[in-house]
Write a structure and sequence with these properties.
There is one protein chain. The chain has 167 residues and is α+β, with helices and mostly antiparallel strands. The chain is built from three helices and six strands; from the N terminus they run ββαβββαβα. It has one domain: Alkaline Phosphatase, subunit A, CATH 3.40.720.10. Helices cover 26% and strands 16% of the residues.
């Protein structure tokens, strides 16, 4: 999930782009154009247990290569909006199991899910060189809401500055 915030003196725009990177299985090899297939061989079966772990990881990693490309394009577009301070928050809703302990995809309850299903990317890019971030090694989905409110300058009784990644 990607949310964009654009802020200048007179306006705030908050949107979600129409494209989304897709790393959902089981057909990972269909989630990216062929020119982004950096790793091979890839799994092409709907039955993930029929693929080698290498094929499965390669197919999944190719979706990440494509996501990186899309994010780079988005950041380049944001650079061109010079009249705005722009920020991109990129957060995944979950991770994926790729055959570890014979588990595939996602969806296990948090209490028994392996870390790969709940450790997620949380990337923030900003055009504002004065933006300061807290010195923390990890962040979670709990930080997203408060960080977006902080970025947009929204005053709310539910806002918790301790949960924002911004200084």
């Amino acid at each position: 999930m990607i949310f964009l915030g654009l802020r200048n003196i007179n306006s705030i725009v908050f949107s979600q782009p129409k494209w989304e990177a897709k790393q959902h299985g089981p057909l990972y090899h269909q989630k990216y154009p062929l020119e982004f297939e950096s790793f091979s061989p890839v799994c092409k079966s709907v039955e993930l247990s029929q693929c080698t772990q290498e094929e499965l990881i390669n197919a999944y990693d190719n979706t990440i290569v494509y996501t990186d490309h899309l994010l780079a394009q988005l950041i380049e577009s944001l650079h061109q909006l010079e009249e705005f301070n722009t920020t991109m928050f990129f957060v995944s809703d979950h991770g994926e199991s790729l055959g570890e302990n014979n588990l595939y995809m996602h969806g296990l309850p948090m209490s028994i899910a392996p870390e790969v299903q709940y450790q997620i990317p949380f990337l923030v890019w900003t055009s504002d060189p004065s933006a300061l971030f807290k010195d923390q090694k990890t962040a979670s989905q709990y930080h997203v809401f408060h960080s977006v409110l902080d970025f947009l300058g929204v005053d709310s009784p539910v806002y918790d500055p301790d949960q924002s990644i911004l200084k």
